[in-house]
Amino acid sequence: MNIQATNRLTPAETALVDAYTAKFSELPGDGAVVAARDVLFDDLKTGGLPTRRIEAWHYTDLKSLLRTVPEDRPAPVIEKAASIIAGSPVAYMLHGTADIGKVDGVSRFADSLLDGSAAAGLAEASKDDTIGRINGSFVRDGLVVEIPADAELDKPIELQVIHGAGQVHSRFPVRFGKGSKATVIERHLSVTPDAALVSSVSDIVVEDGAEATWILLQQQGAADIHLGQLRIKLGAEAKLRLFVINAGGKLVRQELRIDVEGEGTDLIVRGVNLLGGETHTDVTMVLGHNVPNTTSTEVFRNVVFDRAKGIFQGMIRVAPDAQKTDAKMACNTLLMSDDGEFSAKPELEIFADDVQCGHGATVADISDNHLYYLMARGVPRAKARAMLVNAFVAEIVEELEEENLVEALETIISGWLEHHA
Questions:
Q1: Please, which residues bridge with residue 107 across strands?
Q2: Distance CA 108, CA 90 (A)
Q3: Can you give the pTM of this predicted structure?
């Protein structure tokens, strides 16, 4: 392995090279994993961090935005957080190290690295997969979740990813077995005000006939860099409800890479982006309808305060054989500040002729008519605005229907809005 920093490398790229050189011998894995890491990091080093010249990264010029990389630090003492749903089983990632507790069906990803079975899964998902390259190069551990066929879980499994300052890289291979029904919550939390670089990749397979709910709740610290990716494959007659909530972080890139591979699939994607301070948050989705007779709906609601900047890029691709596809996508944004920004880029690539597909995007402030309605009934202006913003995003969460989940997530969202509004 020959890694040499050159004058062409930015300080952040140089720091990644130095970190890999220093830590390579300590990273877990057999020969196949070592080889996979080398390929990933060579691709990262050769290509560098992406710039706006790469279409998928046009709005998030990572080479410019990622100016420094926090130094790797020893794991701090981390206190586990209470589960979102009382009594739910919780498995933990504590500053990059798995603690599976007594959760059935959960094991350590480090074991898969050591025996080499994880090597193939480390491969980058596409030619512009910077997140996959960083994560696959540095990952030490994670949580492997197996939901058995025909199992029906009465409470969600929570994957609690808690970290301090420094660098943390985690992996979550998850399989919902045939005919199973389960909910998994992936929750990211920071316990220090100092900056951290966090990368996370979740490889999710929903097998034939399974009904899965996946909730991604990102609550990083105000100085943190969060590079997250969901890779999802759906089997025949599978149903997936995916809810993504971003409520933190300084620089956030959340990728959703979804492949519909079985007929009769029903996919629901809902997103809430709460943006405040000077955060830069980018949600990029690529959804492939690859077979006939599938449906999907994607709705994202965004609220922008202060000098925050948000991006939503949503691509729906309908393959030539994917007749009878029904796919709809919408992105709606409330701009609560003259200094805030939000860019929306919904796209369709359709290669089949018997489909129903559509997309749309809106950007607006609070409706004066709605505000007047509340104020005319004695509600103070500030409270009226807060109520309307809350209702705007709560409508998305309420689609979950499970009362305990809705209440827990609405409490988190309301607390964020009260702090920022």
A1: 144
A2: 14
A3: 0.95
Q: Nearest to residue 186, comparing CAs of 142, 218, 163, 164?
A: 218
Backbone angles phi, psi at 272, to 5 degrees: -130, 120
**Residues above pLDDT 70, as percent of the chain:** 98
Conformation bin of residue 355: beta by default, left when phi > 0, alpha when psi is -120 to 50:
beta
Residue with token string 């080398």: 38
The pLDDT tens digits for 74-129 are 888 888 999 999 999 999 999 999 999 889 999 999 999 999 999 999 999 999 99
In this predicted structure, the answer to whether residue 5 has a pLDDT above a threshold of 50 is no
Q: What is the mean pLDDT of residues 268-293?
A: 98
Q: What is the pLDDT of residue 372?
A: 74
Are residues 203 and 173 in contact, defined by beta-carbon separation less than 8 angstroms? yes
Query: Phi-psi region for residue 237, left (φ > 0), alpha (ψ -120 to 50) or beta?
Result: left
Report the side by side order of strands in the sheet with 166-176: 106-108, 141-147, 166-176, 196-206, 225-234, 251-260, 280-289, 309-318, 341-350
Within 139-243, where are the H helices? none
Backbone angles phi, psi at 133, to 5 degrees: -65, -45
- CB-CB contact of 133 with 41 (8 Å): yes
pLDDT tens, residue by residue, 158-215: 999 999 999 999 999 999 999 999 999 999 999 999 999 999 999 999 999 999 999 9
C-beta separation of 244 from 216 below 8 A: yes
Q: Is 178 in contact with 209 (CB distance < 8 Å)?
A: yes
Cα(107)–Cα(98) distance, rounded to whole angstroms? 9
Buried/exposed code over 387-418 (b: 16+ C-beta within 10 A; e: otherwise): bbbbebbbebbeebeeeebeebbbebbeebbe
Phi-psi region of 95 (alpha: psi -120 to 50; beta: other; left: phi over 0): left
Q: How far is CA 25 from the centre of its chain?
A: 29
Backbone angles phi, psi at 36, to 5 degrees: -65, -40
CA-to-CA dists, residue 420 to 59, 282, 367, 378, 381, angstroms: 24, 19, 20, 23, 16
For the stretch 251-274, pLDDT in tens is 999 999 999 999 999 999 999 999
Q: Any idea which residue has 């860019």 for tokens?
A: 343
